[in-house]
Design a protein that fits this description.
Distance between the termini: 26 Å
Structural class: alpha+beta
Helix content: 25-40%
Bound molecules: 3-[O-phosphonopyridoxyl]--amino-benzoic acid
Strand content: 25-35%
Oligomer: single chain
Number of strands: 16
Largest sheet: 9 strands, mixed
Order of helices and strands: EEEHEEHHEEHEHEEEEHEHEEEH
């Protein structure tokens, strides 16, 4: 999915403290975010004019930055204000925000400490969603051969600007004419999809891999777990194998862009009866209500 579909001529971009026209929103070729993928980001939804789970996204951004020793040059409260300001400046009601922090301007060379100040930009635009039909019929996916980041490399919990692993897995998916792929960790357990977290339902119990399996701590995932528990559904975090996916009664993904989407086939194996199951449909509905009804 390609979330930002900008109305580029009129769009206002927040860039290092100023709202500027998109045509003037430029960063230098010496920015380490561009030269080395040295930075962190967030993808955030706007529902009914409200920024969804902003505090959780800001917390995750600062934790990602801390893990890579990137000092964000403004406070969490000021950054949250800047996000809201950008949404208002673009009159976004239903949309998507991309919040990016790079290491900033440096020299040619890896040393991040020559970068004096992080560079921050915020894009608020509309979102290209999966077609409704895909939610009704369910999605077919594959297992990727590309392994999720090893925890001793870039920790998978860091939402860094270096997404090449996930992009390689996405290429595998697109080569197979499906939109998504499951990535496994270095031990062969399910980590996540390229931009979504993984859930299955087996004998009425919901299973999802623990963070230690190599997934990003998904904000949608956390909400879906809470909503499932409110429905008195049991949620168990445990390592899952490819076999577990193949024989699941239901299978769904969660993420900022996809929300909750049913998986009906993986690697040519049909899941359940080949349609999104009742737990998936219930949680998709509950998530929609939560996203659209929640206070600011
Ligand atoms: N894993 C990875 C690797 C991600 O990038 C998620 C899980 C789900 O996390 P959230 O917090 O969003 O529930 C993500 C987030 C896109 C797109 O273009 C992908 C994400 C966010 C926004 C847009 O498909 N991935």
């Amino acid at each position: 999915m390609c979330p930002i579909k900008g109305h580029f001529m009129t769009q206002k971009i927040w860039l290092d403290g100023n709202l500027v026209d998109s045509k003037d929103a430029k960063i230098t070729v010496f920015d380490h975010g561009l030269l080395y993928g040295d930075g962190v980001f967030e993808g955030i939804r706007v529902y009914s004019g409200r920024v969804f789970e902003l505090d959780a996204h800001i917390t995750r951004l600062y934790e990602s930055a801390k893990a890579i020793r990137l000092v964000i040059s403004m406070s969490q409260a000021d950054l949250a204000r800047a996000v809201r300001e950008t949404v208002e400046a673009n009159s976004v009601r239903e949309g998507y925000i991309r919040l990016v922090v790079t290491r900033g301007v440096g020299t040619l060379g890896l040393n991040p400490f020559v970068c004096e100040k992080s560079s921050i930009f915020i894009i608020a635009g509309s979102i290209q969603l999966y077609p409704e039909e895909l939610y009704e019929k369910g999605m077919k996916i594959i297992s990727a051969t590309t392994v999720r980041n090893h925890p001793l490399a870039i920790p998978p919990q860091v939402k860094s600007l270096n997404y090449l692993n996930n992009i390689l897995a996405k290429i595998e998916a697109l080569d197979s004419n499906v939109p998504e792929a499951v990535m496994y960790n270095h031990e062969g357990y399910v980590a996540e999809a390229t931009g979504d977290n993984v859930f299955i339902v087996k004998k009425g119990v919901i299973h999802t891999p623990p963070d230690e399996a190599g997934a990003l701590g998904g904000i949608t995932r956390g909400i879906v777990i809470k909503l499932a528990q409110q429905e008195n559904l049991q949620v168990v975090e445990k390592n899952l194998t490819r076999f577990d996916l193949y024989v699941a009664d239901e299978f769904f993904l969660t993420g900022t862009a996809a929300e909750v989407i049913g998986i009906v086939e993986i690697d040519g194996r049909i899941i359940g009866d080949g349609k999104p199951g009742p737990v998936t449909s219930l949680l998709r509905r509950r998530f929609f209500e939560y996203a659209h009804g929640k206070e600011k």
